[in-house]
Amino acid sequence: MNLDWLDAFLIFGAFKVVEIMGLGLLVHLQLGLTRVANFGVVGFWGVGLYAFGVAYLKVDWPFGDLYQFLVCAAIATIVAAAAGLVVGWLISDLDDDGTLVGTLGFATIVVILATTQQGLTGGALGLGGLGFPYDFGRVKTHEFTWLLITTAVVVLIFAYAWRVHRTPHGRLLIAVGANEALARSLGKSATAARLRMMTVTSGAMGLLGAMHGVMVRSLEINSLDVSVTLAALAALILGGTARVFGAVVGVLLTVALFDIVIQFYIPIPDGWNTQALPVAREAVFGAAIVLMLIFRPQGLLGQMRRPALMRRLHGDW
Amino acid sequence: MSVNGLSSGYGSVAVLHEVEFTVGHEIFAVLGANGAGKTTLLTTLAGLLPAFSGSIAYHGTDVTNLSASESARLGVGYVPQEASVFPDLSVLENLTVGGMIGTRPHEERLEEVFETFPDLRTKLDLRAGNLSGGESRMVACGRALMQDPTVLLLDEPTAGLSPLYLELFFEKVAEIHRTRGVSIVLTEQNATQALGIADRVMVLSLGVGSEPMSADAVTTDLLREGYQI
Asked: In chain A, N or C terminus with fewer CB closer than 10 Å?
């Protein structure tokens, strides 16, 4: 495949957009549906990234690249899901403030462990040597193919989120998020429903972390940055936390705007890309969250159930 | 349902003090002024608030320490006074989340709810958060009925309703008991209307319950004493 026309940095920009979109969709299920204010997104994503990297680099697997990737990605997903289950259980009786602090604390623990456990993670220096699970000969082809594969994974996450809205489990999650006391009187365990959701979404965040590791081919402590959480939350809040398309629209208006449109198509002075733009990006994301919460807390796309969806759901019966 | 020496409250503050009564196949009204402990009593019976002491038995089984979801699975339906619907869900979805337990087909249960509340049939795809107070109560009651309860706890179902809905709602409560055989524990401030449909009554005053008595035996003096007028 001849990809000479394609800028390698553009592939990375697009990968970032797709990756944050996936995280935003998962945060939608946590925050938008179940009202679990997870401010430790980077923690679950980072657990997946590091579990994948450590399993990939520190274990002498007896099989080829593809199976090595699949096994290590499965390990990353399971470890992140287990982290989601434990953190979800620990925060199950906490209010919103407690949930926020608890998940933020979890993300901090992950960063500290990744920094201090040098024998496993390489600490601040990180570890190189992660590779693509295929060999087409050219790096750019590898990266572009990986972008497509990651996009397919995010499409699956979108389909899952879309489906959840229309299932009894999804309705229970919405009920738990809206009024937990009332939801408990429905005869189903609100805690179990929330834990199931936390486990599944955290596992998927871990898988996205593993896919990130393959794309950058290394473990870098700098990647465990709060900007991952901030980008996912800013996008979702801008688009609308309660809508599946909220994360999609929000990411296109935030991450895609900065990491693709401004970076590649707007003529900006030399040096801004590496210095001013990242700072401006974080500032704009933070401001977007504050302004949206003040002036349009339901986001650009509005409330959860629109009349058209109500009619469609009604038609299903 | 049999309640013996039940005390309950919030944190270390006791609101209910050794309340005792039994509920058979009847409408049992708990009357009292604001702050008497009516909501505390029903949330404790529903398993949403732990009892300080005493016991609650249901069909002879001690359910005092059961969670709300376990109580619901045993047949206790609960309709709170406020925030009684899930606002982001449609009317139909509000009803169907009530039907997540039980074995009878949803359609069959929905039809029965529509027989009791025919107005809901035309509002199924409306967002529950956009309904009026009276419509919300119907949805909340319908959702509880979808659980196929054998006892229904109704916390001031007519609070804040217009006179038109108020009369209709008491009629509906009586109809639910009569046609579906559901025992009902009803808390109310509106004594006149509640006495019109109740079989027996207990007056709750500052967390202390009177001796349960026939609705016919309730006197104005007793109510004045209970309501501390």
From this structure: N
